């Protein structure tokens, strides 16, 4: 049973039923090697079709100018917000100072009233009247 050795490799057969199939030339890589896959297309730069039109058509300077404007607006908003917070903090501190001053005045008045009662008691004792006799 001797068979021809040409049938050992199917890619080298010459008498195929679809013999009129066009052969795609293989692209060589940078290393000089061939892919071995006829269906593999060489890689090319990606076409970015999903980008917004503004990114595709606008110039870099226009986009940078827009970015700078947005940053300036954000900076101004931050300054205004900081001013508002500083004003609220200042008002809160004024209120706390007034409250502390009122508490101090109240404490001084109570101490003064207490001191007045002590002085009156001293005067009564000095005149010879004690608490036992006076009530």
Helix content: 55-70%
The main sheet comes to: none
Shape: rod-shaped
Q: What integer is the average pLDDT?
A: 78
Span of the ends, CA to CA: 147 Å
The radius of gyration is: 50 Å
User: How many E strands?
Assistant: 0
Low-confidence stretches: none
Structural class: mainly alpha
Number of helices: 3
Instruction: Report the order of strands and helices.
Output: HHH
> Beta-sheet strand percentage?
under 5%
Structure description:
The structure is a single chain. The chain has helices at 53-57, 60-126, 131-134. The longest helix is centred in the last third of the chain and has 67 residues, at 60-126. With 135 residues, it is mostly helical.
What's a concise summary of this model?
With 135 residues, the chain is mainly α.
Layout of helices and strands, plus pairs?
Blueprint: H1 53-57, H2 60-126, H3 131-134
Which structural traits does this protein have?
135 residues, mainly alpha, rod-shaped
